[in-house]
Amino acid sequence: MDLTFLSPRSRMLLALVIFGTIGLVRRYIPLGSVPLAFLRAALGCLTMLFLMRAGHIPFHWDKLKDRAPKLLLSGLLLGLDWVFFFESFNHTTVAIATLCYYMAPVFMLAAAPLVFREQITRRKMVCGAITVGGMLLVSGVLGSSGDVGDITGVFCALAGAFFYAGIIIISKTITGLDPYEQTSVQLGTAAFFLLLYCLLTGQLDFHTMDGAGWGLTMLLGIVHTGLAYGIYFGSLTQVPAQTTALLSYVDPVVAVCISVFLLQEPITGLQLAGVLLVLGGMIGGERRR
Question: Which of 78, 101, 189, 203 has its CA 20 to 30 A from that of 137?
Fold first, then answer.
C-alpha cells in the first residue's frame, strides 16, 4: 500500500484511527474471543510477511534465535491480551472497554521503578492517580449503575491492559531487530499458542460465522492488524517521540466517539467525566514541561 503522498504524521494518524475502530468491527463478528484472536494473529502475521517481502526486509535468523525466549513470551502475552480485549466487548460498551484497556501505561508506570529502575516524577504520579480515578468512574464502580456484565467487561479489559503492558516491557528489552521482523514473529507465536489452545479445548468451531462475519474477520486481521501495524511502524521513526505519545490517544477518542454517536451505547454523566479524566491524565503524563 503506497501512502507516500501522506506525511508521516498523517500516516500514523490513519493507523491510529484504524485501531480505534477495532471495537466496532468486533461487535459484529459472531465468533468466540479465542478463535477470533487466533484468526487475527494468523492473518496479521501473513500480512506482515507480505509487507516484509514487498519491502525487501529480511529475517535475521541468528538474532531471532538469540532473542527467542523473549519473543515467545511476548507472543504468548499478545495472544492473551487480545483474548481478554475481545471478550470485554461482549460484556460492556466499546467506550468502557477501550478506556479500561488503555490503563496499560499506568501499569507500566507502576512497574518502571522495579523493572527499569526509573524514578517516577511527582507529575507522573499525579497524572497516574487522575487516570485511575477516571477509570473507576468509567467502569461504573463509583456512583454509576453499572451491572455485573459491565464489571466483567471492565475486568477483562484491565486483564488485556495488564498483558499489553507486559508485552511493552519485554519488547523494550529486545534490541537489534527490525519492528516488522519482531512483530511478525510475535504475531506468529500468538497464532501458534492460540491455535494449540483452540484444538485442545475444541473451540476451533466456525459454524456461527456467515459471509459478513468472515469478511469482517479478514478486515480485522489484514487491515486492522497487518496493514495498520505496517503503516504505524513505517511512520514511527519519522515522527517525534512526543508527537507519537500524544497521537496514541487518537485511538481511544475514536473508540469513544463510535460508542456514543454511532453505536449509541449508553453512557452516564459520571462515566463521561471519567472519560475526560482518563484522557487528561494520560495526555498530561506524556507531556513534557
Answer: 78
